[in-house]
Amino acid sequence: MTGNVVRVGDEVFAFGETHLVGEIDGVAIRLESVLGGTRVVTLPTLLAAEDFTLVGTDAAVPSLPPLGMLDALPPAAVEAARRWEQHVVEVVTGRAPQAPESAPPRPGFDPETTTLAEREQRKADELSAAGQPVSTRTLRRMRTRYRAQGLWGLLDQRLLRTRTPYGRADERLVAAIAAAIAAETETSTGTRDRLRKRVRDALDAEHGPGAMVLPSKATFNRLVAAMTTGKHTFGQATTRRSLANRPERPFTPITALRPGDLVQIDTTPLDVMTVLDDGTSVRPELTYALDVATRSICAIALRPAGTKAVDAALLLARMLVPEQLRPNWPTVLGMRASVLPHEQLAEVDPRLAGAAGRPVIVPETIVCDHGTVFISATFIAACDKLGISFQPTHKGSPWQKGNVETGFGSINTLFSQYAAGYTGPNTTRRGRAVDGAWLLPDLADLVEQWIVAGWQNRPHEGLRHPRLPGRAASPNEMYAALVASAGYLPLPLTGTDYLELLPATWRAINDYGIRINHRTYDADALNPHRRQHSGITSKRGLWEVHHDPYDCNQVWVRNHHDDGRWITAHWTHRDLVTAPFAEFTWQAARAELARRGGNATEQAAIALVLDELLTRVGAGPAPAERKADRISASTRRAVARGMASPPDPRPPLTVVPPLGEPEPEIDDNLAAEDDELGEVIPFGIFDAHAEAERMW
């Protein structure tokens, strides 16, 4: 291979302008532009420029043949080319390639005594005598190709012919098939015969009936197979749509440098059947938050079908509240037994001393899809109150939260398939008569235990310790490493912070109290504020009331006259109901009362029906129950869903004293008065029966 040489002082054209080669230092070349300016580039960068030429010469820049492609060719063809190389080299130099330089040329091939034409004729005669007839013209052509391309030029050129992607198919046919394949993206999956008919109809409409004849069915199917590779045109429609939504550009990896830097949230049905209190088997919906930096599951919410916006808002609260070690959990699941820096964290918040072995992560940015659960005023307001950046993905772009999407598959693989009532990812993998085996609260408790014991301590291939890149780290290990390197410390929520996340409404404080959805709430602390203006002019003097839709026994009123402190007001008819109830349970009781011909606005009547529903749904239908008195199926499902709600994660409404300050002393008389008003429920497992006995 020969070519021009780049020397200092030469002119080269590259990067859209002419340069003067000012200096060459190894592979670095300093180029001085004739228009002014200097740049230093490497020789490969200069030669790789598409417009690179040597000014003042038309010689091509020497290039190496694609030697790596030799491995893709048949070994026999490569061996034949190497034999040709020996013959050509001997014709040119007089000695074989493997012969030492000190060896004399073969007789008749000495360049000093013979001409090139004579050596070519002698080599042709020699090969013909050996049983390989070759003309001097063929030998001369092989020598010329070897000089231009090396060994690559001696290969059988038929092997080097590049095929077009779709062979010799008519371009009009290829365009029609491509349009038909694109139209299949949003339609239900069909067969190749349907696609063939649509292509024929499109060609007839565009070029006239019979103007183009389709190839045979086998040829058409081969062409379609080549054009649908990787598109799932005849596979699952969901996969086809997902692949079509991928952007036609390189993917940018998502990087999070510290805990909470990026948290992804999503909801999907769990592949496990569970049992509601009425005996109905359903697939619950799992909503969970995943921290990208540590792959920690920050919090989960397991609900019957129909997750609400308030569920997502309460999920944020669960993320920011330490998960206390429950009485039925083994002590090895505690934070003290984990690799988390529990001593340092407990100094920040004493509640972490008795917490489960799962970190408390305060999200800075939350990424979610456009589901109605997340694109709602309740969830967005919760993020705004916590100072969290809310970033929904683009529509139809699930890969923008790929970590949480992939996590669902991991949860099904690592947990769901081992649980009783496992349904499989779809009906084709489901067994016969799969029923729920666990009550929803029990299943939620098992999932929580598995997250602490399994997920948080299992090495994740996507996590690498900064000082041990060759070893996969667990989420807890990665959290401990990033806490030390990023200087990150969580600030968990207090009880008042939790109340800020609850849905808010604005009501007047009347003589009888506060009225919400035909329920009256009252408390002695409201006496100074009855019929008073709240001071919020934009709300016409109404008072801000926060309520929990999963526990309607009390509401919280913000005291705008006392630095925004909270006043707890209880439902006036709570004595008539012996168990907690949700908002939709209340609505179901009103509907049941209306069906019986009663007044659906009278609280006492609704409370009696509600208590009856809760009792009868929990016990199941009696065989001798009269048809007129039976509970409707929709009402039974609504009540069961309310009773299946998981325990309330709300922390106690107390303020943790700062470190180094003594806790305030409590007056025994005041404590006795507080006991008469009601006991504060500590953070822990919600037991409906114990709660009923305690309160009533």
From TrEMBL:
<feature type="compositionally biased region" description="Pro residues">
    <location>
        <begin position="646"/>
        <end position="661"/>
    </location>
</feature>
<dbReference type="GO" id="GO:0003676">
    <property type="term" value="F:nucleic acid binding"/>
</dbReference>
<dbReference type="InterPro" id="IPR001584">
    <property type="entry name" value="Integrase_cat-core"/>
</dbReference>
<dbReference type="GO" id="GO:0015074">
    <property type="term" value="P:DNA integration"/>
</dbReference>
<dbReference type="InterPro" id="IPR036397">
    <property type="entry name" value="RNaseH_sf"/>
</dbReference>
<feature type="region of interest" description="Disordered">
    <location>
        <begin position="639"/>
        <end position="667"/>
    </location>
</feature>
<dbReference type="InterPro" id="IPR015378">
    <property type="entry name" value="Transposase-like_Mu_C"/>
</dbReference>
<feature type="domain" description="Integrase catalytic">
    <location>
        <begin position="255"/>
        <end position="483"/>
    </location>
</feature>
<dbReference type="Pfam" id="PF09299">
    <property type="entry name" value="Mu-transpos_C"/>
</dbReference>
<dbReference type="InterPro" id="IPR012337">
    <property type="entry name" value="RNaseH-like_sf"/>
</dbReference>
<protein>
    <submittedName>
        <fullName>Mu transposase, C-terminal</fullName>
    </submittedName>
</protein>
